Automatic annotation (TrEMBL):
Residue span of region Disordered: 1-21, 272-291, 302-337
Signal peptide: none
Protein name listed in UniProt: Ribosome production factor 2 homolog
Main location: nucleus
Domain Brix, residue spans: 28-256
A cellular component annotation (GO) from this entry: nucleolus
Biological process, per Gene Ontology: maturation of LSU-rRNA from tricistronic rRNA transcript (SSU-rRNA, 5.8S rRNA, LSU-rRNA); ribosomal large subunit assembly
Amino acid sequence: MLRTVKPKNARSKRALEARQPKEIEDPRTAIFVKGTHTGEVLNNVMKELMALKRPDAIAFNKKNEIRPFDAASTSIQSLEFWSAKNDASMFIIGQTTKKRPHGLTFVRMFDSRVLDMTEIGVESWKGMADYKTPKSTPGHKPLMHFASELFDTHPRFIQLKSMLIDLFNGEEIESICLPGIEHVISVSCAPTPAALNTATAGTISTDDTSNLPKVHLRTYTIKLLASGTRIPRVELTPMGPSLDFVLRRHQAADPEMLKEAMKRPKLKKTDVEKGLGKKKKNMEVDEMGDLRGRVHIAKQDLGKLQTRKMKGLKTRFDEEDADSEDGGRPRKKRREE
């Protein structure tokens, strides 16, 4: 572990404060690590993924004996050391073996500790050089699209979706400029087998990957064309890379650590009043930004209200009704003085 150093000047103090937890975190820095055996396929795939992640990507060009799923090795300590030293919160480790060829392991960190891991096996790929089309600008935040119900129902695909969003998610922005969206990352699955329908999904073990469908990752550039209305017509052009992979081993997050990682800071009173915090019952913010509320009261029986005994509530109509009930005799008018 890295020893705690007390800052000696303002520059080192700002560097340490930049690593402290923030209400809005900085973009995740990903480190691409090569194992003892990678091969040409994994080397090219890691280069393509790093091109999409730039500038928040660090490459370890030397080979490292790293096995994150092996509890007996010192790989976890190495990952924690690299995470603390480089202020990185995600690792992409490439390792190919005879039993698991072309394997990529995504490791997510929290507070310089391993949170969860998932391994995929690359079966086919095409790089950016294979598509003679325009490319997106590095550093732009992509639009991500997940086209399968498994990304919302199956635990393995939910974890994969969360990993990919954390990997490619850039800086947090308050508003979206339509011309600023240059590329789309689309993740889809092969047809869902009958064994993974919603009725029986809970009975299948998450460690069984034989029935899991193949995952397809595609990247497109966005081209906005005139449509005659305010909303432009959108065309997608393949940009690359394109990956086809399957899910393999995984390690779920520890419940206590996950609860700590998902903890949010308390919101300010002004944010709660603007409707940015927890939604309160019968309160909403309209399109103009005004806070509106609705008050519910019990149902009132207006027929039981005692109004005739109050002179202030009497009307001329009520007096005429009272005269008709007395037999039609006219009521004496009060002499005006």
